[in-house]
Amino acid sequence: xxxxxxxxxxxxxxxxxxxxxxxxxxxxxxxxxxxxxxxxxxxxxxxxxxxxxxxxxxxxxxxxxxxxxxxxxxxxxxxxxxxxxxxxxxxxxxxxxxxxxxxxxxxxxxxxxxxxxxxxxxxxxxxxxxxxxxxxxxxxxxxxxxxxxxxxxxxxxxxxxxxxxxxxxxxxxxxxxxxxxxxxxxxxxxxxxxxxxxxxxxxxxxxxxxxxxxxxxxxxxxxxxxxxxxxxxxxxxxxxxxxxxxxxxxxxxxxxxxxxxxxxxxxxxxxxxxxxxxxxxxxxxxxxxxxxxxxxxxxxxxxxxxxxxxxxxxxxxxxxxxxxxxxxxxxxxxxxxxxxxxxxxxxxxxxxxxxxxxxxxxxxxxxxxxxxxxxxxxxxxxxxxxxxxxxxxxxxxxxxxxxxxxxxxxxxxxxxxxxxxxxxxxxxxxxxxxxxxxxxxxxxxxxxxxx
Amino acid sequence: xxxxxxxxxxxxxxxxxxxxxxxxxxxxxxxxxxxxxxxxxxxxxxxxxxxxxxxxxxxxxxxxxxxxxxxxxxxxxxxxxxxxxxxxxxxxxxxxxxxxxxxxxxxxxxxxxxxxxxxxxxxxxxxxxxxxxxxxxxxxxxxxxxxxxxxxxxxxxxxxxxxxxxxxxxxxxxxxxxxxxxxxxxxxxxxxxxxxxxxxxxxxxxxxxxxxxxxxxxxxxxxxxxxxxxxxxxxxxxxxxxxxxxxxxxxxxxxxxxxxxxxxxxxxxxxxxxxxxxxxxxxxxxxxxxxxxxxxxxxxxxxxxxxxxxxxxxxxxxxxxxxxxxxxxxxxxxxxxxxxxxxxxxxxxxxxxxxxxxxxxxxxxxxxxxxxxxxxxxxxxxxxxxxxxxxxxxxxxxxxxxxxxxxxxxxxxxxxxxxxxxxxxxxxxxxxxxxxxxxxxxxxxxxxxxx
Lengths: 451, 451
Known about the structure:
Two copies of one chain form a homodimer. Chain A has helices at 3-23, 34-47, 113-132, 156-162, 164-167, 219-228, 251-258, 264-271, 282-291, 331-344, 368-381, 398-403, 429-446; strands at 51-55, 63-68, 76-82, 102-104, 107-109, 140-146, 171-174, 186-188, 191-202, 208-209, 294-303, 312-313, 316-325, 351-358, 386-388, 391-394, 407-410, 426-428. Chain A is an alpha/beta fold. In chain A, the strands form five sheets. Chain A has a six-stranded mixed beta sheet with strand order 1-2-6-3-7-17, with helices on one face. Strand 11 of chain A pairs antiparallel with strand 11 (294-303) of chain B.
């Protein structure tokens, strides 16, 4: 009987543990059930033989830590994920209630099933599986599960800064990941950073009749003019110095990127567009997605926006702007450059607030944790994993790569199209079973010094 | 006993007629009570000896016409005003219910009291006063009262076009006007025109995660860039040909303008600003207010505009833009120029709709109706009237000056700060009494060929 078959009978146990975990809402954006969920997670870890503790965070959600020491190894792997979930709204689009964890068609339906409680469970189960085989763990495991990832991990930087020794390891697996549409696990070697700002301008103390336009500043015009100095019509960010710290992708990065399957037609259909931005195609489009810094107007509001017309000179205007950053741009440095640029352009009247920041991260493709996970992926899924040199999204990965100087990968077992951040989120029974095996083998492979 | 004193006993009668008129709501924006109010107005005119009829308007509100023929004169004066009113919201800020027409402190409190049912009543009463003196009217009077002024007079152009002969007169008094803060009647010789457009841009079929920014068009950026090509940071409208038809103010216009009292400090206090736009002061600020074409962003909406941050790439964006036009700019021509400009600038993807249009109007300061009203103003109010060569606001005046080739003035008896378009609108008993005398004398003066 293979190790694979030995695990089968236990999957039901892990499915039930996951369903219990899912039935406890943990909506960080609404502060709903998050602390209760942290408590439940910590207790579950203890049941699985992982020594766990819950660390309260002032004005935030608890961090759940865990440790499982090996008697025979010095090497340590840190597992990161988040136990909080997105809000379930709109509720009326769910076929199964969002916290029912109903099991139907071999799927568990619940908010958080694929993002990311299923992934947490896979790693807890992996430790349990190894221990139940009567084996000593081949490496030490540490766990850090936060409860604020879905709201931008606001307290994690300080927590990491204050707990460097506690978190020290030889590598990190951020298991908040999943499979690509063909069923291959994706292994991401880095994330873009983010600088999210709000720009505001105000003038008169009330909205005025628009006939007053010759006499009173229009904050909406000020904001349009100011935004226009940030990015040109070809999409280039033109704030002085913005690109100074950008490390262009290496030949190796580009080679790895070019191996990623990229279905342009499918993407265009999904977005409902005739062509991609700037007429990009194929490898160029994918390289742009992975490696280009961006500047996105996420929101803009001023004046009258109801039906028909109202002749109003607005008293204020604001815009929300999201800058995605690539290695090795620094959000704090760029925020200062942005402010300085606006002042230099004559827009000192525009207030600017930083609403979010995450630094970009990179792990080399040659890192041993990458090889450990890739070998596990080949064995468990029978396919080559998709190695992604840089993910277009953002996360707190830099805390591990930059602050703690560890290699870190993002990889998990969530199925593609499993409705993360949308109604009817699910995880399948078989993807959890594979995910447990993927975790077991990643851990075992990482123990091998010859890998 | 002077003519003045003879009228006194009758004022109460007109006050009561006005209160009845005010108690009938006529909110064109909400299609509330407008037709009933038109019926009431027509009946009231008949009671006052004015031969009146109500003309239904397809998909619109009725026009109320009236005529009073003189047995001894060929000269005719057309009186224009509107019987519809602004919505009364916010209701909880009214001390007296908005359609109670409560009489307190010598004031009648009601939506429409000063804008503009009081002004209508003043002219109806004026006709009645002259007839009751046992006199033949010195000129013919015609009346046109519309029920859609507060929503931009959408059906008046077609009505005027189809009823040119019916409306033919030697001059027009648009009595939707009032007094300045010092108590002097304002006589406006023209209005700015308006072109109100909505610009829209769409891209993906749904809002996307902002990490997709390298691949998908951001409609908010498209709109910001397009708007930026309309007006430069010094406030100059830079659409090619926009200013081609602008007639610069004449020396006479400027002389008249410079006589208008202009309290810059008070304006700045009212707006809550430290300085006027571009640091304008005194006569320059007033000239700009009266004579400059404008381009105002009245509204802009895209993406996420709630608290904190959301990383969204919006699927669409729209802006509402109000262009005020000066003599002799043509909104239809400018709309074509705007569309052509956007196409030439590479913004053919931006849809543009015309939501409103009014042409600018001008009447020469030497017109006899100006002299007739000015003389009446001096006699009734004991002060020089404020002659305004051009009003910063807009209205359907061009239908009279351009389409019917008549001189037209805007002047009325509403007190300054009488809360038009705001809660607690009122008219005072004495302002109505003076308004009736102002109307009587304007009519009588206009009959004098030697004026």
